[in-house]
Amino acid sequence: MAANATTMRDALYEAPGPKTRRKMLLGTVVSLAAVVAFLVWVVYRFWVKGQLSYRYWELFSWRSTWIYLERAQKA
Which of 41, 43, 59, 39 lies closest to 51 in space, CA to CA? Predict the structure, then answer.
């Protein structure tokens, strides 16, 4: 076998070069920004409609709720 022979794995999965790394970083940053913007929009919509009111979320402050959820998770 020749010393410069490339295996199938090396040919298919070679390390990304500088351009590809920049593209991957840009894609990651843009995707993260899009996800954060979407989550901010969702929370804003909840706030506008009054869905973040304490009366809707009060049950999560009860100990019995967390005990029930813990039991359900273990099941």
Answer: 43
As a whole number of angstroms, the distance between CA 8 and CA 47 comes to 54
The single-letter DSSP state of residue 75 is -
Put simply, whether the predicted model's pTM sits higher than 0.70 gets the answer no
Q: Locate the domains of the chain by residue range.
A: 8-74
The per-residue pLDDT for 14 is: 78
Q: Amino acid identity, residue 62?
A: W
d(CA 41, CA 46): 9
Between the CA atoms of 32, 33, 35 and 39, what dihedral angle is there, to the nearest 10 degrees?
140
- Nearby residues of 65 by Cβ (< 8 Å), 6 or more positions away: 59
